[in-house]
Design brief:
This protein has one domain (2-156). 22% of the residues are buried. It is elongated, with a radius of gyration of 20 Å. The chain has helices spanning 2-36, 43-64, 80-115, 127-156. The protein has four helices and no strands.
């Protein structure tokens, strides 16, 4: 069970550190532009690439903490048993979709590497960021599995 908690926690830390790096980069770019009229080359492209890390590693942490937006306008009015069935159904659908997205993103990573795609201006290879997205989907999958197991254990506890 510890691994199911550790992976989302680590991915959340990676996401938060990346946000910090992005803030430093943009602040330095703005400061250098204002003070010396010398912005950092490729800041926008670097920011776009860092956003991949922030989003995909943040997914599993948000899932682990159960902080995703949930609209239960109708489901809250159902009996408890029906609510549990709907929640489990949603988790199963999420697992299936996440597994497919992870698998397809790994395949896309291979294709992008073979094609040698890079960012337009500073020519950073794109395949590592596709790999980050695939790993992020995998972490998201693990977080969903962890939530299902925790929910099952909590339900069995008297």
């Amino acid at each position: 069970m510890r691994i199911l908690d550790a992976i989302p926690r680590i991915s959340g830390i990676v996401s938060m550190v990346t946000v910090l790096l992005l803030m430093i980069l943009i602040s330095a770019d703005v400061g250098l532009r204002a003070a010396f009229n010398k912005p950092i080359t490729g800041t926008i492209e670097i920011a776009e690439l860092l956003m991949v890390i922030i989003v995909f590693f943040g997914l599993s942490w948000t899932t682990h903490k159960k902080m995703h937006i949930k609209v239960d306008l109708f489901v809250a009015r159902y009996p408890k048993r029906m609510q549990e069935i709907i929640i489990i159904f949603n988790h199963v659908i999420a697992l299936i979709l996440t597994a497919v997205l992870c698998w397809q993103t790994f395949g896309e990573t291979k294709m992008v590497k073979l094609l040698g795609l890079t960012s337009a201006y500073i020519e950073v290879p794109k395949y590592p960021f596709y790999a980050v997205a695939a790993i992020g989907w995998g972490c998201f999958f693990i977080a969903i599995v962890g939530n299902i197991i925790k929910r099952t254990i909590e339900d069995e506890t008297p």
